[in-house]
Amino acid sequence: MGFEKQLHQYDSFDILQYLNGVKENDVLRILEKRKLDALEFLALLSPAAGNLLETMAQKAHEISIKHFGKTILLYTPMYLSNFCVNQCIYCSFNFDLNIPRRKLTFDEIEEEAKAISDTGLKHILILTGESRRETPVSYLTEAVKRLKKYFQSISIEIYPLELEEYRMMAAAGVDGLTIYQEVYDKQVYRQVHIGGPKTNYLFRLNAPERACKAKFRSVNIGALLGLAQWQREAFFTGLHAQYLQNQYPDVEISISLPRIRPHAGGFKGRVKVEDRALVQILLALRLFLPYAGITISTRESRFLRDHLIPLGVTKMSAGVSTAVGGHTSDKGTDQFEIGDTRSVAEMKEVILKKGYQPILKDWMKWD
Amino acid sequence: MDQLSIGGITLNSRLLVGTGKFSSYGIMPDVIKKSGTQVVTMALRRVDLEGREDNILEYIPKDCILLPNTSGARNAEEAIRIAGLARAMGCGNWIKIEVISDQKYLLPDNYETIKATEVLAKEGFIVLPYMSPDLMAAKAMESAGAAAVMPLGAPIGTNRGIRTRELIEILIDEIKVPIIVDAGIGKPSHAAEAMEMGAEAVLVNTAIATSEDPVKMAEAFSLAVQAGRMAYLAKMGPQGRFAKASSPLTGFLNEGDC
After folding, report:
1. Helices B214-234, B28-35: inter-axial angle, 10-degree rounding
2. What is the nearest CA distance from A214 to chain B, expressed in angstroms?
3. Among candidates B26, B3, B22, which has minimal Cα distance to B13?
4. First and final CA of chain B: distance in angstroms?
5. Which residues of A touch B48 (CB under 8 A)?
6. A66 → closest Cβ in B75, B81, B158
7. Residue B175 to residues A242, A261, B13: CA-CA distances in angstroms?
8. CA Rg value for chain B
9. Is the Cβ of A123 closer than 8 Å to some Cβ of chain B?
10. Closest by alpha carbon to A312, among A72, A123, A74?
11. Does the beta-carbon distance from B54 to A120 stay under 8 Å?
12. Tell me: the pLDDT tens digits for A95-132?
């Protein structure tokens, strides 16, 4: 079922060979088109397209303004727990790593919420590691109940759930899901997810679709860039987003472009994804899916984030800590090192200076 | 005097202005002033009453009518809930119904919009439904109690002009409540065109918000809307494909036998 079938179509397709065959003229012709098919999108990830980044950027900028105006939505992540039963070699919360483990009590969650809401933010993304014992669905729904007092929109970035569990989360007041496949390449997926339930590739691949079925308002997907050949990963991310949008037209589908960051485990990634590549991916996705939201987190540096704004970014995090309880204390292990430590107030100022409007509220809770 | 009447309120300006997509709220008071508008629409999802400098309502002059819209609603039920919130938040009883069930093209869902119009009109709202220009849907909205009908000129944000001209003309001919052309108007000449066609008003957002000088563009739209309306009232001279002097088909009547 689902996106897997589409993914299989490319099993014997030589993506690298195709990319190397793309000429600059092909790219220019594609840039004239209003609607791109899958292979035209792929062509925008080619070395030839890499020579035409400015031309692509001009068009991406124009399309973004048309669809989203000069606005950037701000949010921040809140880490509830770092207990995790998975062994992912790129993550500080890896079960094998000897880091202090902690989960927030409900009162601590409220304290964090207060601290974050004092910065003016109204959109929150809550995160946990994967531990159905430490952070079961019941813990999460209770956390959401507490958070509703402080925020207008609550998204989750947690372990993949069953359809019925997503429905429970939606009923509790969650409106958004972020879940990264991490890597679409099955072989690499097996190599970097050594143990734990996350080894189940398909259960994770179909999680965004289950959330769409559960009537989430927004679903955000992505590949962790640096684990496998970035052109393939970006291509499959775009196809996955398009698949979801076609199947569930009323859901806001968006994409994140997370690059591997330094973390407690020391693994530095298998593939180098340069800034140029990141920009090319961003532009290709914008041109392929003009309506999709694109998120850039504080994994990236302030310099790069500031310059990416006009290229099609619609959502950014600000005032970030990736440690459990990091908004009220400075103890704890970060999930990864962040590249942009600016506060919400500082980010608002920067965005305004860029000629864009920082948006703090773009949805409302029902009750 | 030529005035527009919506829901029993008389308006001098036929330009409605939207507040989305601007690079800052700070510019809004000047935009509103230069546009001369009396009705300002805003997405309720973005209204942040606790937001201090981020609260859009702080930037809208008190003598303007607020027209909160239900942006983000995916069906009638959600639109109705958002309208209720708008009223509770002190945004008055005007509501622009926007139901979008397709994120790709952002085209309004007429079927759900009719349902929401019916409920909200009964609840005493002044209902302005945003819609795809379809005569049967517009009639249904009218009989459900819509105070005006807002057909799109082109898909939202495209600035492509009055692409649905033929269909909007039919609505202008057949629908008794005011027709306000919403979405697609990309430049003042498009607004003038809609007014020349006989639309009662236009709503402009993207074209003003994303121009290099939104304040100046607001004024340009104000002038274009006035010019278009004036031309409509003055009744344009007939258009012809041929110069008047020539009568290629009947000229022979004036020629003698030969």
Report:
1. 20
2. 14
3. B3
4. 59
5. 122, 360-361
6. B158
7. 39, 60, 21
8. 20
9. no
10. A72
11. yes
12. 888 888 999 999 999 999 999 999 999 999 999 999 99
Known catalytic residue: B104? Answer: no
Flag the least confident range among A71-80, B52-61, B171-180, B213-222.
B52-61
Q: Does A251 touch chain B (CB under 8 A)?
A: yes
Could you say which of A71, A249, A358 has the minimum Cβ distance to residue B21? Answer: A71
Which residues of B fall below an 8 Å CB-CB distance to A? 20-25, 44-48, 51-52, 54, 72, 74-75, 81-82, 85, 100-106, 157-159, 206, 209-210
- Model pLDDT for residues A201-219, shown as the tens digit of each residue: 999 999 999 999 999 999 9
The rounded distance, in Å, linking the Cα atoms of B100 and B71 is 8
Q: What confidence tens digit (pLDDT) does each residue in A100-109 have? A: 899 999 999 9
Whether residue A356 and residue B82 make contact (CB cut-off 8 A), yes or no, is: no
Burial (CB count within 10 angstroms: exposed 0-12, middle 13-18, buried 19+), residue A100? exposed
Question: What pLDDT score was predicted for residue B241?
Answer: 60
- A positions 63-122 inside 8 Å of B (CB): 65-71, 120, 122
The answer to whether A99 and A333 have CB atoms below 8 angstroms apart is yes
Cβ within 8 Å, pair A122-B48: yes
Contacts 24+ apart (CB under 8 A), A143-146: A143/A80, A143/A104, A143/A106, A143/A109, A144/A169, A144/A172, A144/A173, A144/A174, A145/A172, A145/A173, A146/A106, A146/A109, A146/A110, A146/A113
Give the nearest partner residue to B104 out of A71, A249, A363, using CB atoms. Answer: A249
Q: Which residues of B182-209 are buried (b: 16+ CB within 10 A; e: fewer)?
A: bbbbbbbebbbbbbbbbbbbbbbbbbbb
CB of B62 closer than 8 Å to CB of B94: no
Is B23–A291 a contact, with Cβ atoms under 8 angstroms apart?
no
Q: Which two tokens stand for residue A127?
A: 């995160």
User: Amino acid identity, residue A367?
Assistant: D
Give A 291-320 residues with CB within 8 A of chain B: 291
Two tokens, residue A337:
């090192």
- Point out the residue among A250, A291, A362 whose CB comes nearest to the CB of B46: A362
First to last CA, chain A: 36
Quote the pLDDT of residue A1. Answer: 63
Contact A88, A193 (CB under 8 A): yes
Residues 6+ apart with CB under 8 A from A258: A180, A222, A223, A224, A225, A297, A299
Interface check A32 vs B, CB under 8 A: no
- Residue A335 identity (one-letter amino acid): Q
CA A235 to each of CA A21, A60, A141, A281, A282: distance values in angstroms, whole numbers, following the listed order: 16, 17, 35, 9, 11
Across the interface, whether the CB atoms of A357 and B209 are under 8 A apart is answered no
Q: Does A250 touch chain B (CB under 8 A)?
A: yes
Total-model pTM: 0.87
Q: What percent of chain A shows pLDDT beyond 70? A: 98
